[in-house]
Amino acid sequence: MGAMNEEVVILVADDDEGHAGLIRRNLERSGIVNPIVHFGDGQAALDFLFGLAEGARREPGKAYVLLLDIRMPRVDGIEVLRRIKGDAELRRMPVVMVTTTDDPREVAYCHELGCNSYVTKPVEYEAFVNAIRQLGLFLSIVQVPRVGAEA
Amino acid sequence: MAIFGVFHGMEKVFHAMEKVFHSMEQKGRILPRRGKSFPCYGKSFPRRGSSGFLGMAVALGWLACAGGAGAQENCEPPDTGGWPSRQCVPKAVGLGGALVAVAALGVASSMAARARRGRQRLELLLEAMEEGVVGIGPDDVCIFCNRAALGMLGLREEELVGRRQHDVFHSRREDGSPYPWEECPVRATLLDGERRNGEDLFWRSNGESFPASYALSPLLDGGRRAGAVLVFCEVTARKRAENLLAAKNKEMERVVYVASHDLRTPLVNVDGYGRELGYVVEDIGRALDAEGLGEAERLARVRAALPEMEESLKRVRAGTKQMDTLLKGLLDYSRRGRSAMQIGALDMDALAARVVAAMEYQIREAGARVRVGRLPPCRGDESQVEGVFLNVLGNALKYLDPSRPGEIEIGGEEAYGQSSYWVRDNGVGMTPEQCEKVFELFYRAEPGRTDGDGLGLPSARQALGRMGGEIWAESTPGQGSRFHVALPRDR
User: What residues contact residue B145 under an 8 Å CB cut-off, 6+ apart?
Assistant: First the structure.
């Protein structure tokens, strides 16, 4: 398993704190030690990414990866994905949908919008770990662009 | 004589005769459409009326007689003013002819009686039909109609017959915009003589509309197009049943979605943190079995695992509680959907006053002002409708914008045969997607901000659907929302 660039910040947007905790625990168990930032809904993620509100916002020149749930209050994951892929700068940031929905229409729609990967939250723990491992592998091989820096 | 038997009315016979014989000369020559002319001692007759018909019968009697006797081809009948002359034919033949003529007269009179009976039967049949029947002339003007048509359209005969059907009951579309005559199916059938059927919206004289299933056939007069017959029936009951079925199917889909997604969310936690507990137990086991560790160090390791165990147990318990809430909600929703309803006339002014009184505490807490306009009456189940308005008003109060004084207005009007009401607020508002999502089971705009089971608006939509009503929302984020409630009008 390739080592992941430790400078990359992993953003997790999931309204369920338990799910976010499981994602974090399993990323760590897979040996990924990158910093993880959690958002409770889509609006909080947008606030951070686009600097829409007071508080933490993304730093120019830093590399980010976003793990994005779909069903969230206020602004859902589909809308967050749409906004990111519609932004000239942010569109290069890898986005992985991590969701309980495996509705093929929804999967197809997310791919159409330009998500980089789609992982269904499985109930089976082994499968979940596998999915996260694959995610870790994915994260380690993707050349994460530095958002905000000239490519 | 057979020719008489096949036709049912005088007019028809008359026209049929015109088909067989091109014309009938004053001096007694019948010119068939095909073949040679027959000599005939008959009288031409006025086109309508029984005297003319009598003349016809006599003429036919002579025709039959002359034809049967071998017909003297070139016999020119003397001018007797058109009536048969005995001089022209042998006596026997004359007698036979007279008999045939009498027989023909008999047939003719029984024909007239049969025609009367036929017409009566036809009228009885038309009146007995549950379908509406409207005869339409080439100019779209109604020629005749039956009682069912008048009943469904809420018209008197003189309000329909003599007028253009398109103007009387087919002038508008569902949204009230004009229905152009160029798109009227009646016009199409009048033009091309083709049969048509389908569904369309017809309007009653009182301004209500109803979906109608119709069949259009051309009216033929001697092969020539002379208008159209429109046969229709109301499909409101069927349409309502179809809508209800569609709504039920959507609800079912939603329930399946809830079961598969919303229940899966806590399940992921229960399963995931159950496994986490397993890892901790393994860690504790290793700590206890580890060689070369002092008692204190072992205890410290076990103790260190406690917070993780507590955290996992908390998540497992939260997950099972969430599942329990969801299942209870589903059960409750299904129970509400099956409760008995008592549909009656509702005084909405009184109902709104009760709703506002019941919410007085919440209104004061929110510091809001609620204005209620005059509301038209409607038909529905009193407690269900009250529940709907309590819910909508409760939502308006919950989602007020704290940065400005809350203004809520309840209003209503009668439109398109329905009583429609609205609850308008100047609260935080919703996006167009949220306007539809709020009616989904267990959807909550901001779970942290307000309490609620995510069942209120879905239940309101369900209840209104069962009463033949509707509920929907319009909103501008940051400006406020408007919830519309429509119910059948009280007649």
Answer: B132, B133, B134, B135, B157, B160, B161
For residue B8, pLDDT beyond 50: no
Answer whether A5 touches B (CB < 8 Å): no
Show Cβ contacts of residue B72 under 8 Å, excluding neighbours closer than 6 positions: B39, B66, B88, B89
Which amino acid, B256?
Answer: V
User: What gap in Å lies between CA B227 and CA B276, rounded to an integer?
Assistant: 82
Contacts of B309 in chain A (CB under 8 A): none
Dihedral of CA atoms B433, B439, B445, B449 in degrees, nearest 10, equals 160
Residue labelled with tokens 């003429």 = B59
Q: What is the least distance, in Å, from the CA of B275 to any CA of chain A?
A: 7
B315, A18: Cβ pair inside 8 Å? Answer: yes
Query: In chain A, whose CA is at the least distance from the CA of B438?
Result: A73
pLDDT band at B57 (very low <50, low <70, confident <90, very high): very low
Amino acid sitting at position B130: E
Distance CA B452, CA B438 (A): 12
Strands B418-425 and B470-476: unpaired
CB under 8 Å to B258, separation ≥6 — which residues?
B326, B330, B441, B442
Question: Does B454 reach chain A within 8 Å, measured CB to CB?
Answer: no
What pLDDT was estimated at residue B23?
37
- Please name the helix (run of DSSP H) or strand (run of DSSP E) that holds residue B18, with its range, or none: helix B10-20
Of B269, B445, B448, the CB nearest to A18: B269
Going by C-beta distance under 8 Å and a sequence separation of 6 or more, which residues neighbour residue B73? B36, B39
**CA distances in angstroms from B92 to B64, B73, B87, B301, listed in the order given:** 14, 18, 12, 140
Q: Are A116 and A142 in contact (CB under 8 A)?
A: yes
Phi, psi of B9 (to 5 degrees): -140, 155
Query: What are the tens digits of pLDDT across the range B337-371?
Result: 777 888 999 999 999 999 999 999 999 988 999 99
pLDDT value at residue B108: 67
Whole-model pTM: value is: 0.53
Interhelix angle B236-257/B456-466, rounded to 10 degrees, is 160
8 A C-beta contact, residue B166 and residue B184: yes
B265 vs A: CB within 8 A: yes
Residue B456 in tokens: 């209120």
Residue B361 has a CB neighbour count (10 Å cut-off) of 8
What is the per-residue pLDDT for A125? 60
Yes or no, beta carbons of A15 and B269 under 8 Å apart? no
Is B442 an interface residue toward A (CB < 8 Å)?
no
Q: pLDDT category, B447, cuts 50, 70, 90? A: low
**Residue-wise pLDDT tens digits, A92-141:** 888 888 888 777 888 889 999 988 888 887 666 666 667 666 666 666 55
Distance CA B440, CA B403 (A): 28
Of chain B, the end-to-end C-alpha distance in Å amounts to: 58
**For residues B53 and B45, what is the distance between their CA atoms, to the nearest angstrom?**
7
> Across the interface, which of B318, B445, B447 has its CB nearest the CB of A18?
B318
Q: What is the pLDDT of residue A80?
A: 95
Q: Is A25 on the interface with B (CB under 8 A)?
A: yes
pLDDT higher at B25 or B249: B249
Write down the pLDDT at residue B410.
95
- Residue B254 — very low, low, confident or very high, per pLDDT cuts 50/70/90? confident
